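User: Please predict structures.

Assistant: First:
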Amino acid sequence: MITLFDNAFSPFARKVRMVLEHKGLAFESIDGLAPAAHARLAALNPRVEVPVLVDGELAVVNSSHVVAYLEQRHPERPVYPADAATRVAALAWERRADTLFDAITHDVSNGGFGFPHGTMPPGLLEAAREDLVPIYADLERTLGDRDFVCGALSIADLALFPHMTAVRFLDVAFDGATHPRLLAWYKRLRQVDVCRADLARTQAFLRGAGPALQRPARIVWRGDRIEWLLARGFHEWFVEEIRAGRVAWPRR
């Protein structure tokens, strides 16, 4: 039996879970970020990050590595396009979703928990809007008359979908009038079984957590998220966060 240490709030874990469900694979899901699972997750991944997939004696860390493993181990219902050039394009979109897109949505939502009232750095939201515009425009051009980013449903769509759901709530959403193909694609994905289930699961998690979903004392930061913040000139704010002890660093 496959075991997935995931979390309904993590875009990387959501991507992997959608791949598993798309392939029709049976698996046990464990909320790796719940306190009860902390020790088990840390034993598999010292960075204590999700997702981690356990298949027998083998543990696979990092969402893109997990997807590659599943694609090789279970090639039925592939998420990588068969054509080499199209596969390269799909993987490029996955990488863009996992790096720049994630950095923007994470930083604007301050780790997914929101900034304490009145503490968002001035100009951060505007910077996010500016840097999302080229992504939206590239997606609009790429989609053309296609139903999905690379023609058929692929890892490109499943990697982008969690972030596209996030921007709808962050005041950095795409404009349907300017990006009609992108809006049509997003609505189409919401009707795909695995995407519909993913969105429902995330919404149920947020509703169920309610007041128990406490903002942590320290937000975990990593490379791409820090890189975007510094590139946009928010280094002084970030240094103050470090000095105030509100930044957590993955150690491994």
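Second:
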Amino acid sequence: MPLLAVLALLCIKVFSLGKAYLKAFAASCLTILTVTFTGVIGLFPNLIPSSIDPRYSLTIFNSSSSPYTLKIMTAVALVFVPIVIAYQAWHYRVFRKKIDPAEMAKQGRAY
């Protein structure tokens, strides 16, 4: 994983010099992901290691939710995520028009 991070970092320079900016951006994203995953892989299975005693560390296994909690949260997500997406779509539709200063002054709403 660290080797892939270094390779992606070098690709940023190569793509930037070749004026392939979209590829350079993708290489930059890959660099960030691989550096992050390097740390995550290095800590596995610990999420937060304890400096006092390894028994007190938070691991993937002792900090995960119960199956019942996961079922409840799945139901909540299935109900509320579409509501949030619908609200965002409505919000975008309502505020899609640009504000025209002349029209604002004509309507007497300019501050």
